Amino acid sequence: MPPNFSTALVIGALSAALSGMLALPARAADLVQVYQQALANDPVYQSARYSLRAGEEKITQGRAGLLPTVGVGGNYARSGDSMQNSSNTYTLQLTQPLLRMANWETYQQGKLSVAVSEAQFAQAEQDLILRVGQTYFDVLSAQDALSFLRAQKVAISEQLASAKRNFEVGTATITDTNEAQARYDLANAQEISAQNDLEVALSRLQQIIGQPPTPLSTLRPNVQLSLPQPALIDPWIASAEQQNYGVVVQQVSLEIAQSEIRRSRAGHYPTVDLVVGRNFTNQNSQLTPYTNGRGYANSVGVQWNIPLYAGFGVSSKVDESIALADKARADLENARRTAVLNARQAYLGVSNGLSQVKAYEAAEISSLSALESNRLGYQVGVRINIDVLNAQQQLFSTRRDLAKARYDTLMNGLKLKSAAGSLKEDDLAQINLLLGPPTP
């Protein structure tokens, strides 16, 4: 069984989290609802589903080479100077392969091809979960950035008004007003850029779900994120080496390549078929009426063939198949190394992300204290306006970075399970418990 990963724990009882979810606005969409919309509307996922359906036919096509074939053929001809002679022949023939090694290997490849299609579809399902999660959190991150910029803009406008009042009464210089005005103008420009980033993020989400997204549920404040379980990296790497779907695809592809070697070598082997036929002949000649006649003839026999020489084509095909098998073996090793690298990066992303979150939480408290101290110092004249503005910017930047660190940590948790080959919809449901009503 692949390692289990608990993405995060909600502070408080689970019942409180569920009741909070039930309290969401009617038009709000959470992470699981967005994923369900993507399942129904994402064209990439739909393409993968049809590809699976097509791949499942490979086993039927491969089995066909082992089953009998039945056909009807005929011939009608007229001959003679005046076309007075006619011959009409029909044949019903059944051929059952008895010894065809190439056909047997084709059948085995058909079964392996179905396994490849199933693994590729499972990978497409995991990719959809990752794409939905990433675009969902991109929207939340863009919303946070815009919200913090607007809050910062309000705070700057208040500081600008204070600087103007102080200048009018003569307790501050015009420099304070100019600095506040410059920060306010910069905040305006940043707000426009943040609004554009939000529109782009919403468009990317719309591309996946096929409709304009409704307001999204946001991450609850002060959620506590947890370490991956198991907390050691080695089980995750071991799972990635064996159960990652990219590795599975390459493993089965290697088996197909090895089967292709055997199929190519079968070009040197004899073939044996059982042939059963029933013939009908109707011959009519006006010049030689004694040859006229009609009747049926049945036949049962074994047809065999031993290939002797084919211009070295079979040998060349065998050499080609061996080279392709070596290539598949190298691709398998590359897939394993890639899966291990992705698992290691995702695990470190979760581990370091948790440390980042804690650091930003401490920085938020410090930044808030620094802002309050600078405001008080500005009021008593020991701080200047630029000090307050810098403290405000630091606080809002810290809050923005804290929110993004939480999103990145959750996404790395999903990527870790994807690298290990165990990512499921239930993992989105666990994250869904961390979401609350959308921000107004």
Description:
Helices cover 65% and strands 14% of the residues. With 440 residues, it is of the alpha+beta class. It has 11 helices and 8 strands.
Which tags fit this structure?
440 residues, alpha+beta, four-stranded antiparallel beta sheet, two-stranded antiparallel ribbon, 11 helices, 8 strands, 65% helix, elongated, disordered N terminus
Care to give the gist of this entry?
The protein has 440 residues and is an alpha+beta fold. It has eleven helices and eight strands.
Give the helix/strand layout.
Elements: E1 8-9, H1 14-22, H2 31-41, H3 43-55, H4 58-64, E2 69-79, E3 85-99, H5 101-169, H6 174-209, E4 218-219, E5 224-225, H7 233-243, H8 245-265, E6 271-285, E7 293-305, H9 313-380, H10 385-419, H11 425-432, E8 435-436
Antiparallel strand pairs: 1-5, 2-3, 3-6, 4-8, 6-7
